Amino acid sequence: MPLTAPNRRRRQLPAVALLLLTATAATAQPQIFGPIAPPTESPALSPEDLVADERALGEQRADLERELAESGPRRGATIGERLQGLERLRLLLNQKKAALAEIQVASSDAETTAATLQRIREQGVDESPPYSLLEVDHLRDELDGAEKRLRRATDATDAAEAALVQARQMLTTREAARRKAQEALDKNDDPARFSALEDELAMRKLESRVAAAVVDLRILELRRDRINRNSRNQELDLLAARIERMQSSTGLDEEQYRERADRFANRIEELKEQLTEAERRAVRAEQAWSKALQRIDPDRPDDENLERAAARRQEYVTWQQTTRVLTERIQRLDDLMRVWERRFAVANRRASPDEQAQWRSDSGGLLDQYEREARVERAKLSDLRKEALLLNDKILGTELGSELRNALDRHQEAVDQRIEAQEINVASLDTAIRQHTRLLEELRGEQASRDLEERFAAAWAWTKRAWSYEVTVVDDQSITAGKLFLALVLLTL
User: Fold this and answer.
1) Residue 54 burial (10 A CB sphere; 0-12, 13-18, 19+)
2) What is the pLDDT of residues 453-466, one digit of tens each?
């Protein structure tokens, strides 16, 4: 049956009411659930902008809290989720404040470093020559640290780029959900579902706002990390420029050399005393381990005695390792004393070509040996750290009696001591590698300088021979190539 006009109006009333309610809802919350502004590649944020955003968020939160106080339980749960979204926005805002402050500090540091680098390239370093080899060595240590900082900054920049990609993907997903919720509300003709769909749309809009804020934060973090990476590059260039300017006039006087040699000798004596004590402790630890093994009943071994024996064994292994590490460190310090003696001779040009060739051969072989040892010792250190983690999980993950806990604590203490000794050993190897590398660099530089001087000397000797070469003899007077050249010059004037 066709609908009459009155019936048609009655069927259309819900749609008209829906449009009115939608318009009312759109004007009731224009700030909290407005359209999402797409994030820019470089959001132009200032501290004042962030303060204004924080004030607006506070007002929006106050409005929602008043609405929560007047709503029922079902409505209250929805509003509670919105309040959580606003809290997330507030936290993101604080993170943007921190990132913006870090950008300002990093930019200022980068400008200072760039200005210093430009000044050194134009005017040279502040110090006056001759420069101390120890000072140049300190700069080289700083250069090694700057290279590590640059690698960390590069890794942080790569991670920030990946995080930005993920944040944009999340924003795309959130915007798709918001559009879907908007479409569902626009097509709805059931008044009973209107409130639920409206709440759903409001939540999806808030989630899009959060996703957009995350994108803005990731952009700021990427900008900060790029500035830090560029600053680390500039720092590297600055140190390299200072070293380049200073190493051409580097020397090491006798007093500085003796001071360094005395320091090595005193350190060796300290390590020898520690070695003697470690050997005594290793003997006592072995005896304690033997007694702990004797207390274990082979027919009915119990956990406490087994763990006590394991702890005693770890103490013995620890002191054995300490003895080995101290012995190797003493040997390396002896080697480093020779390295410094050779560097002193090279810096003061007291080494003959044959000695330099022998030193290059010696340092090359030791450098290869130390690098192999460093790889092995780092692998051992990694295994010890894994063992410490497993032991810690065992202590925390089970109920233990007092005796068993004491045994496990001793076990863990022994492993921690071995880790500390291993870390010192790796650092000692790194120092030896660094010093041999620098000796080789100085030997190569000296060889290049010597080769250049020898070429100049050979060229000058050839020029003198050519200048004195006798072309002919006139009236018992020798006519040389030099006299002919001067005569030609006078004729052309």
Assistant:
1) middle
2) 566 666 776 777 77
